[in-house]
Amino acid sequence: MTSAADARRILAELATTEPGAALDQIAHWAQTLRDFDGFSCDDRFEVATEVEATGRERVEVVFAQFLERIHKRDRAQRKLFEPLFSFWSGVSGAYGRCVLDHQRGEKGAARVRKDLPIAIARSIRAAGVAERMRLLRYVSLDATMWQALYRLLAYAETLGIDDEAVIAYAHEVHTTPRAELLRLTGLSLAALHELPPEQVELAGRILDRFAISFTWAREPVPECNFAIDLAAATAPWQLKEKDHEPPAASKRYIGGGPALAKLQEIERLAANNLLSEEARYGKEFSQAQIVTVIRHLRTYLGADPPRRSFPRVSVNDEVSVVKGFRAICQRVTTVEVGSGMTLGQDLSVEQRKKSAMHLTAEEVEAVPEVWRTMNRSEWGMGIDIPPDLGLWAEPGVLCGISAHEGAPWWVGIVRRLDAEDAGHLHCGLWIMSKKPVAVFLRVIGTEAQKASNWESSSGGFDYRYMRALMLPDGLKSHDHPVMLIERQEIGMGELCEVMVGEHSRHIQLLELIEEGADYMRVAFAWKTPAAH
Fold it and tell me: What pLDDT, on the 0 to 100 scale, is given for residue 503?
């Protein structure tokens, strides 16, 4: 495979090979292009183009199969991951070798000069896709890859092509070598290990579109709160107010810039269900997921990214953990219709003597697992998940947590997941509430539909019921109380009747804060029924 014609002939022989096996072979050839010394610069670029184009035809099929197993960390998923990761790593290295050989003045350097902006952009793009594959399995970014990519961009700056607009692939909008590095920088800084796997992929697609609008500067400026060093093998880092490191010729400064305003507008459209299907980054993503991911990106790439708020202490304790919204509802305090309990606007529960009318929830078989805490703060835990347990654990999954036998159940969320290459899992749990209350809600429509008929039991409306978890000690949103409801199609502005005690209480859903695996976290307000 010493020329583009040879490459086309050899690659054509894979036409009937199963896509995964074909991609595995193509990945091997891409890695050979990266490592073998017998190519001129221009021949290497042309062969790399043929190898990548053929591989991309298989990538779509294999990646779709990988996404079907996105929630399973098993051998079958890893078997799909490996050729995908190897292919993109090899492609990145092949194009990167073209650039490196040009820098060394190797044979064919003059002939490949016109293609260098595309080669650099494609090399960095492919490295970013490979690292995104790692993030989809919650394996940290490869710390060793930064040096090679920084070297590519530094050379592009030397040639004055770092911001040269190119069409990296047919049917794409223009990009630049710098924009490609900004995409990967965004992946690194955006704490994607805190998102469910589908949302990791969605975040990558959003960054693909908007990273080109990030701010970039050679000197420290107020709008840039992140930095990279093109002469160091270090990941991008967040600048802090107390940092006094002097500027250096190799340092570059990055900020969200115009991209943040563009993301805010997309979030507004999605929050109001106004985002067209072609603008939704794929038909598999709901507008609620888009809102959740954009808020996450704006938070971590904004001017004041989160920092740990509570000190942590090392511990070595066992905790019982159960998965999912319904399993939690079975274990926490439950307020039934006519139970004699009342729920105040502060979400406190008061008990009176009265028999209950039960609305029975679907029974869920969920056996708690015993995990081990490594550290703890007031509202968080660092967890070591024992081998063969937590196979369902991923960011966005709701958990019930009990510190010891007989202790009350808390509500928490897997906020981050870190998987080692060997498969060992660590996770971080955010404790949302230590005093959750399970209630039933009856959805009664929007205020415009129902305001004149608050206390009617029929009124021609078709009611539906849903479970909710009130979080009396939970973090508020814009001074409004917050609760969890089961994930479903429901609009903000809906009115619901809280099925509690002797007197009807009503709430209005105000804001979707985030959508998780089986829950939606929403802010609400108590409503006073209108008089007849």
Answer: 64
